[in-house]
Write the structure tokens for this entry.
Amino acid sequence: MDQEVKWDLTQWVDEYTSDLYSWALYKISDSEQAKDLVQETFLAAAEKMDVYRGESTPKTWLFSILNHKIADHYRKRISQPISMEDTSMVMFFEKVGEWQENKKPKNWQVEDNQILLDDVDFQAVLKNCLNALPEKWSTSVKLKYLTEKSGEEICQELGITPSNFWQIVHRAKLQLRDCIEINWFKS
């Protein structure tokens, strides 16, 4: 093709913004971030207009750029440590990862003189729930709460990062909570 082809980016913005936004929103579930990714897609397209030769439709080319932007978005998120403040469950825990007393489920309340850990049947349920966790989760919880090792010691022993450790403990506690509610409090 000897003749130079002119592409109209303004027309593409009008035609494809809605489809690109819908795809980005579907992939990342964050409206503002999806809008940013679509804008970044059009900026990247504007910078690379000279290399677009029309071998694919403009829509296909733009979606290809957007998919790379989405992948980059997730790469950045994965490489950043996750803190409890970044999760929606932060309202249930103290800074050190313990349950907030007023956030425990209502049916977890026991009589004042009853200590659940002294109850043989509860111990069996707790043991089964701990054993149902993935190996690293179960080990992390046992080391932290039963042997009272520090997070630093546990990280060294298991060869994991502190952010990974706290994420494991967080998820393990949520799964333990569900398991105990099903097998003890609702039985």
